[in-house]
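User: My collaborator sent over this chain with a note saying "see what the structure looks like." That's all I know about it. Can you take a look?
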Amino acid sequence: MQGRPNTVFILMDNLGYGELGAYGGGIIRGAATPRVDRLADEGTRLTNYNVEAKCTPSRSAILTGRFSIRSGTRLAEASKD
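Assistant: Without extra context I'll predict from the sequence alone. Here is the result:
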């Protein structure tokens, strides 16, 4: 009998696509990422994740499972007038 899959979700603020070694960065960008690279090599590597420019909408979408505009967090708190 097969159990549930193990899932690790890591949310990083201000991390560019090519900064981790698994995506072509790592030591080339100034910091090796061997543990994250190993996770990527052993699991599923996702290559397309589109989010808003601010972190608040992304966080609310992940935590609620809803589009950020439906949670009222389409703008970061500091950006609201």
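A starting point for your reply to your collaborator: The mean pLDDT is 77.
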